[in-house]
Every structure is written in C-alpha cells, then in structure tokens.
C-alpha cells in the first residue's frame, strides 16, 4: 500500500485539478468539474483513515489526467458562449448591435 | 529598349507603393524592458482585497486588514487558501508555482509576491 499523501501533495494536486477544470471552454463542463473537484477534495479532507485517504488520492490523480485531456479536447471543439456567461461589456455590445440593426430596419422601411 | 522602359515603370510603381507604405504610424508606447511591473503596492492590495471580498466564504462586509492571515483572521482552511491563491493568480494573470503558492498564507505575503513578480499586470 502506498504511504498516505502529504498535505503539500494534496494541495498541489487540488491546484492542478482546479486549473485544468477551469480550462474547459464549455460552461457546463467547466462548472461541473470545478464543483466535482471541490467536493472530492472536501471528502478527502474529512477522511481520517490513511489507507482510504491514499485510495482517494490515487483516484484523484487518475482523474486529474482525465480532466486535463478532456479539457484539451473540449477546447478544440469550442462553441459560442452561453448567455449566462456573457460579461456585462459583451451584453452591452450585443444590445448596441441589436439597436443598430433595429434602426437600420426602420430606415429601410421609411 | 522597351523592356528597359517597362522595368523602369515597374520600379517607379513599386517605389510609389513603398512610399505609401512608409507613412509613419502613430507611436505606440510600450513598456521598456528595464521598467518594473508598474503596479504600486496600494493598487495590488486593493485588487487582492476585491478578490477576497468576491470569495464566497469570506464575509464581504468584514473589514480586511493588510496583514490578515487566511487561516487565523479569515477563517479559511488549507483548501480554501489554495482557491484564494488561484483567484489571485487569475486576477493578475500569472501562474504561481506550487512551492510558492504554498508559502502564501496571508494578504501581505500575497501582495509581496505580486510586487516581486514582473509578469503580474
């Protein structure tokens, strides 16, 4: 059985997993993997049994690789941003665009 | 002869094209290589405070002090501290290596790290 991971190792794995979860380009996957990573590490934090802890740590390590690879694939097939993740500036830009379109239409009708 | 005339004409044309292209553009000021990151400690500190206030587990109405420790004063555990350090990384668009990210345990340590990182902006 592998020795239980140090807290330093757990923290650095947490950092890496959160970072790769954040690099998903689609909103749903990104939010899901961030949430999932946080949950799994909270579970690890609450665990006191060292053998169980090293099992959880090994599983998280495997998952870290999976997340990193799928994030890369997800970036290759990125789609347009969802309405929920548009920043205020972009929303303003969209509204301006819509406004310009409307005035253009009015001008066309007159 | 006609060939030379043609050659002269093309060269004259290309020279005209060159002269159009060489119109001086507006001077774009850029950071000099020798200049510092240009972030004052005050601005770094206010930005870090904003990051902390935006973090879900910190009460935004709480008064933050420059020397507040993540664990003792802000009541964050080690995983929360990792998340805060990540939020700071994102704010200043840098990547902090794990060893140094581990050493950041308080607001002033974060400010010092950003101040000595030239890539931070």
TrEMBL record, chain A:
Organism superkingdom: Eukaryota
Native organism is Coprinellus micaceus
Matching entries from PANTHER family are given as: LYR MOTIF-CONTAINING PROTEIN 4 (PTHR13166:SF7), PROTEIN C6ORF149 (PTHR13166)
Outline the extent of the Complex 1 LYR protein domain: 9-63
| Name this polypeptide is given | Complex 1 LYR protein domain-containing protein
Q: Which family does it belong to?
A: Belongs to the complex I LYR family.
Query: What's an example Gene Ontology biological process for this entry?
Result: iron-sulfur cluster assembly
> One Gene Ontology cellular component annotation?
mitochondrion
> Pfam families given for it?
Complex1_LYR (PF05347)
TrEMBL record, chain B:
Query: Carrier domain: from which residue to which, for each copy?
Result: 42-118
Its subcellular locations are: Mitochondrion
Under Gene3D superfamilies, the record lists: ACP-like
The organism's superkingdom is given as Eukaryota
For this UniProt record, the keywords arranged alphabetically read as follows: Electron transport, Fatty acid biosynthesis, Fatty acid metabolism, Lipid biosynthesis, Lipid metabolism, Mitochondrion, Phosphopantetheine, Phosphoprotein, Transit peptide, Transport
Any one GO CC term of this protein is: mitochondrial [2Fe-2S] assembly complex
Keyword Lipid metabolism part of the UniProt annotation: yes
Is the keyword ATP-binding assigned to this protein?
no
Gene Ontology MF annotations: acyl binding; acyl carrier activity
Give the family, as the similarity comment puts it.
Answer: Belongs to the acyl carrier protein (ACP) family.
Purpose: Carrier of the growing fatty acid chain in fatty acid biosynthesis.
Q: Which NCBIfam families match?
A: acyl_carrier, PRK00982.1-2
- Can you say what this protein is called? Acyl carrier protein
